[in-house]
Design a protein that fits this description.
5 strands, 70 residues, alpha+beta, 14% helix
Amino acid sequence: MRIPRKLKKKIPKNTPYCYVPDFKKNAQQKELFPYWIKSCPFYQHQEGIEGWCRLIKSEVMDQCKSCRIK
């Protein structure tokens, strides 16, 4: 499967999830919530479905990275 380099760079690194914390936004928070994240460009949330990965064209549970890239 060929992934454009620009998109591949946006896939979260060193994590089993489809997201990484947005450290910059979270540092500005004075309270615990909300907690900001940066999602993988292939992940999308659909109503009635936990989540969907456009890369592997499959449902993902709790934003767990099924593509195993990076």
